[in-house]
Amino acid sequence: MPSSSSSLKAGHRLSGLVLGVFIALHLGNHVLALHSIAWHQWGMTRLRLVYRQPVVETLLLAAVLWQIGSGLLLVCRGWPPATPFFERVQGYSGLYLALFLLIHVGAVLVGRYVWHVETDFYFAARGLNTAPWYWFFGPYYLLAVGAIFGHLAAAHYRNRRNRDRAPMEALLILVSGFVLGLLLVLGFTNYFRGIPVPVALVKAVHW
Fold first, then answer.
1. How distant, in Å, are the alpha carbons of 106, 109, 125 from that of 116?
2. Which of 36, 100, 128, 165 could staple 144 via S-S, CB 3.0–4.6 A?
3. Are 181 and 144 in contact (CB under 8 A)?
4. Phi-psi region of 128 (alpha: psi -120 to 50; beta: other; left: phi over 0)
5. Fold of the 4-204 domain
6. By the 8 A CB rule, do 122 and 41 touch?
7. pLDDT digit string (tens) for 142-163?
8. By the 8 A CB rule, do 171 and 18 touch?
9. Using CA atoms, how far apart are residues 32 and 30, in angstroms rounded to an integer?
């Protein structure tokens, strides 16, 4: 009979897989902003036909909650992180992702059901294009993408059979995350030139 620890890890991996598929599509959609806002909005409109289906959305929200809860339990049981670098990366990236998911998903839900605004490109871009908030949101988004790839890098390092190649491959995955994060910040700020945010959105979002 599996132990509670092994069941927790299995559930964490399963919820991570569900979220991983969504996050891959979500980040791919954000990459389109490097071309234009219109491309980003086009991609989001089509993806929403799938992930805003009630069953799919409920599954994703359940996966988020389980990922946060199970991740925090796993970190607490293994705290402080083990000495190997990527063991520490896994722990710290997991903590950051738990915080990011709470803030990010919470903000989207508040935007939709409390402020009654469209949580599209401009909703995500508002903080990155408003002083002084871009000093928070720039690192916030950059670290979030880096943490996602850091978590993947740690899993790759742990499961890679070729131990000689595992460290370099994991490091490349980690660095790729921060490169992608920087690219997304560029896309959502028009390459640091700034993007005008609709006045109606500024008035509706209370912060």
1. 14, 9, 17
2. 100
3. yes
4. alpha
5. 3 helical TM bundles of succinate and fumarate reductases (1.20.1300)
6. no
7. 999 999 999 999 999 999 989 8
8. no
9. 5
